[in-house]
Amino acid sequence: MTDTLPPPVFSPVVAGCWRMAEWAWTPAERLRWIEQCLDRGVTTFDHADIYGGYTVEALFGEALTLAPHLRERMQLVSKCGIKLLHPNRPEHRLKSYDTSAAHLIASVDNSLRALKTDRLDLLLIHRPDPLMNPAEVAGAVAKLKAAGKILDFGVSNFTMSQFAMLNQWVPLATNQIELHPLHRTPLHDGTLDQMLALDLRPMVWSPLAGGRLFTGEAPDAQRVRATLQDIAARHGVAPATIAYAWLMRHPSRPVPIVGSRRIEALDEALAAVSLTLDAQTWHEVWSAGEGAEVP
């Protein structure tokens, strides 16, 4: 049995930083974006060591050095465990996974240096590693917590059985998963049932299907888009707000990650916090994604 720990506190919407390198902003422009997020109550920022070819954490940290007092107003999340084949990591021979204690500890130290902080509020293993040794991971997490380098620990993209196995060795705070009307598998494969049973809030990446909800030409994307637009018109909000409200309606209380530099995109997501869809409307979106009514 694992110890029971209070779950980490996230903001209702998380700011995703994975594309920050593409924004080509100055440090001052990055800081302004951070400040605008914080002013809206978006205090949680999602990172991974590999984002931007191992550059995004440093870009964020560079901006944070312009106003270091802001660190106490935010929660920093980062992920590790993927080794990319990239010029910034010439020692990597191919893309692979590594959840050894040495790699986890080194990755955290790298992230702390890049982000210009003394701690991560949440560390996640980015992808399941078939060679993961749970005892070794638990030992590394214990060392990192004892040193104050991480406050909480979780995983990303883990199946229900993978989560349960590791959770027996070390308390997991969340599972960061893909979920949207075009990818409904977590609703039915036990992933969200597990979060409910453990009273943990999942984090959701790609809540708008990477934009396919509004640009995709596949039949399911077109059906969902028309449905979201119709519901949005009924509620007087943006279609994206309905997509976020659909996620948030699940009783596991998913926390969506908004990976956009547009502050308006954050506002559309935040508008969903106070919008509760009734069950029929929720199933209306589900049915549009499925292309059929519920069984």
Structure overview:
The protein is an alpha/beta fold. It has a domain at 9-173: TIM Barrel, CATH 3.20.20. 44% of the residues lie in helices and 12% in strands. Strands 1-2-3-6-7-8-9-10 form an 8-stranded parallel β-barrel. It has a two-stranded antiparallel ribbon with strand order 4-5. Helix 2 (27-39) packs across helix 4 (56-64), helix 4 (56-64) packs across helix 5 and helix 12 (239-248) crosses helix 13 (263-271). The two termini are 37 Å apart.
Question: What is the structure about, briefly put?
Answer:
This protein has an 8-stranded parallel barrel with strand order 1-2-3-6-7-8-9-10.
What topology emerges from the helices and strands here?
Elements: E1 14-16, H1 20-23, H2 27-39, E2 44-46, H3 51-54, H4 56-64, E3 75-80, E4 82-83, E5 96-97, H5 101-115, E6 122-125, H6 134-146, E7 153-156, H7 160-167, E8 175-178, H8 185-188, H9 191-198, E9 203-205, H10 212-215, H11 219-235, H12 239-248, E10 255-258, H13 263-271, H14 279-290
Parallel strand pairs: 1-2, 1-10, 2-3, 3-6, 6-7, 7-8, 8-9, 9-10
Antiparallel strand pairs: 4-5
Helix pairs in contact: 2-4, 4-5, 5-6, 11-12, 11-14, 12-13
